[in-house]
Write a structure and sequence with these properties.
With about 350 residues, the chain is of the alpha+beta class. It contains ten helices and 13 strands. Helix 3 runs antiparallel to helix 10 and helix 4 packs across helix 7.
C-alpha cells in the first residue's frame, strides 16, 4: 500500500505539471506514462486501484471484470462518470472483444439502429478448453474466492467477456438471475454455468458456459478450434447472430435477418465489416488489442471508441454476482440495486 501511495503521489504531481505545460486534453506519446494507469492485478484489488488512479487524475484501463463486488462496481462507476465529466478522464474496461470491428458492427445494428427492433430474448454461450486453468487449485487467482467475492471460476474468468458483449451489443440492463453451477472437486471453482437473466426492458438471456472442452483454448495446434462463442439477439423486428470459433476466422460472421425482409446499404456495410469471426484479442504481436489502441487514443485526447465503459462493467458485475448467489441459494436473485445501471456504452467521444 505504501509503494502504491508513493506511485500515485508522483503520478498526481506529474499530471499537474503536464497540464500546466500542455493544457488539458492534449498529450504526446512522450508523456503517456504520466497520464495513464493500466490495472491488470487480482480481481479483488480492482476497486482500490481504480479509485486511486482516478483520484490521481489518471486515465484508467481496467482489466475485466471491473470488480467482483456490486457495491464496489457502483462506486467505481460513479467515480468514473465524475472523472469524465469534471476532468475529461477515460475509464475503459479491457473486454477486448467489444472493441473489435465485428462487435462495433453488431452494436450498430442491434443497439444503435435497432434493426432487430426491441430486443426480447438473447441466447448466448461460451465453451472453452480451460480445465487446465479452472480445475487446478494452484491457480488461486482464478479458482479461490477472496474479499467479498460470491464465487470464482468460469463465471468471472470467462463469462465476463460474453456478458460484456451481450450488454454492449444489446443495450440491456440485468435485473434478476437464476443459475446453476458445476463445481470442480479439485479447485472448488465453477467449471460450467447455466443461467437465465432477466432485463429491465423485459428481455430474457439464456446463457450457457463451460470450461470442459478437451484441450487448451489458447493453442491453435493439434486440431484445437479455440473457444466457441455464440450470441443470438431476437427482437420484435428480426434477429442478429454472431457465432464461431475464436481461432478460426472463417467459422462464423455477423448475420442479420428482418421480418420485413430486405437490408439497406448501412446494413450491408456493417455485415461486410464483420464477414469473419473474431472475439477476444490476446495476440501479442503488433500494436496490441483494439481496446488498448482505443485507450491510447483517449489518453491523447483523440476520438475513441468505448467498447466497454464503467456502465457495461457494472452490468456485468451485477449479473455474475447474482448468478453466483443464485447457484448457492437455489433461488432467483436480484441483481444489486442502485443508480447508474443504464447501458449507454459504445458512443464515439471526441
Amino acid at each position: 500500500a505504501e509503494e502504491r501511495d508513493h506511485f500515485l503521489l508522483r503520478a498526481t504531481r506529474r499530471r499537474r505539471r503536464h497540464r500546466h505545460r500542455h493544457g488539458h486534453g492534449h498529450g504526446s506519446r512522450l508523456h503517456l506514462r504520466h497520464l495513464l494507469l493500466l490495472v491488470c492485478t487480482s480481481h479483488a484489488s480492482h476497486f482500490e486501484l481504480g479509485i486511486a488512479g482516478l483520484r490521481a487524475g489518471l486515465h484508467v484501463l481496467m482489466e475485466k471484470p471491473m470488480t467482483t463486488d456490486p457495491e464496489e462496481a457502483l462506486g467505481l462507476a460513479a467515480a468514473a462518470a465524475a472523472a469524465e465529466r469534471d476532468q475529461g478522464l477515460a475509464f475503459l474496461i479491457n473486454n477486448t472483444a467489444n472493441y473489435r470491428a465485428q462487435s462495433r458492427a453488431a452494436a450498430a445494428l442491434v443497439r444503435e439502429r435497432r434493426r432487430v427492433g426491441r430486443v426480447q430474448h438473447v441466447q448466448c454461450c461460451m465453451h472453452s478448453a480451460l480445465l487446465w486453468l479452472f480445475d487446478d487449485p494452484s491457480n488461486e487467482g482464478w479458482t479461490r474466492s477472496t474479499g467479498r467475492m460470491s464465487g470464482n471460476g468460469f463465471g468471472w474468468g470467462q463469462l465476463s467477456h460474453l456478458l460484456a458483449f451481450v450488454f454492449h451489443v444489446g443495450g440491456l440492463c440485468p435485473t434478476h438471475a437464476f443459475a446453476h453451477t458445476t463445481l470442480s472437486e479439485r479447485s472448488g471453482a465453477d467449471l460450467s454455468v447455466a443461467a437465465v437473466i432477466t432485463c429491465s426492458n423485459g428481455a430474457s438471456i439464456a446463457l450457457s458456459g463451460s470450461a470442459a472442452v478437451p484441450g487448451n483454448a489458447h493453442e491453435a495446434a493439434g486440431g484445437q478450434l479455440g473457444k466457441y462463442v455464440s450470441a443470438r439477439f431476437f427482437g420484435d423486428e428480426g434477429m442478429a447472430v454472431y457465432e464461431g470459433y475464436d481461432q478460426q476466422p472463417d467459422s462464423g460472421r455477423l448475420q442479420l435477418s428482418r421480418r420485413a425482409g430486405g437490408l439497406d446499404a448501412d446494413d450491408e456495410a456493417a455485415l461486410a465489416s464483420a464477414a469473419s469471426f473474431a472475439f477476444e484479442n490476446y495476440d501479442q504481436a503488433g500494436t496490441g488489442p483494439e481496446s488498448l489502441c482505443s485507450f491510447v487514443d483517449a489518453c491523447l485526447g483523440r476520438e475513441h471508441y468505448v467498447g466497454a465503459g464503467a456502465e457495461v462493467g457494472l452490468a456485468v458485475v451485477r449479473a455474475i454476482d447474482a448468478m453466483y448467489r443464485s447457484a448457492r441459494s437455489g433461488r432467483l436473485e436480484t441483481c444489486a440495486p442502485g443508480e447508474g445501471a443504464g447501458i449507454v456504452g459504445g458512443e464515439v467521444l471526441g
